[in-house]
Write a structure and sequence with these properties.
- The structure is a single chain.
- With 189 residues, the chain is α/β, with parallel strands linked by helices.
- The radius of gyration is 26 Å and the shape is elongated.
- It has five helices and six strands.
Amino acid sequence: ALKSKDLESELAVTKAVAEVESKKDAELKLMEEELAKYKDFKLKLSTKMVGETLEEHCEIEFNKIRATGFQRAYFEKDNKVVEGSKGDYIFKDFDEESNEFVSIMFEMKNESEATEKKKKNEDFLKELDKDRTAKGCEYAVLVSVLEADNELYNSGIVDVSHLYPKMYVVRPNFFIPKIGWAHVWTPVT
């Protein structure tokens, strides 16, 4: 009888330990999934520092490289409303004689994970084209973290010129390469 009680007691302890371990494993798995989700989100936004807006990020990134190849460039907030709207930033670069040889209208779009109605990049292209035309810019670039799971937009510089001429969608980490690309591929006249 003593062995039977010891066996029952041991079985109860073993069962209780197994339940605690199972609960602990489930909680650990949930925490690991949350951590992986956060790391994935952070990786997708790796160029965006915590607490910094996308616009500030782009301005800081541009100013980091201004001295290396864009000494005569203009990159400023678009503050002038034309026909009821404005873009976020305008980039213009000039040759030695102060002749403009490339211009880009930038729109930056960020979205919180908590936002219920998710926007799409295409929702902003028409307005961006209107802003670019109103300001006389040659190119238009949407810098966007929208549609975070979209493989096309995550692949790099996406040409959407089939929708609007000389228009591109880029992730924040392709912001500087896009300026460089437009700068290199636009002939100085």
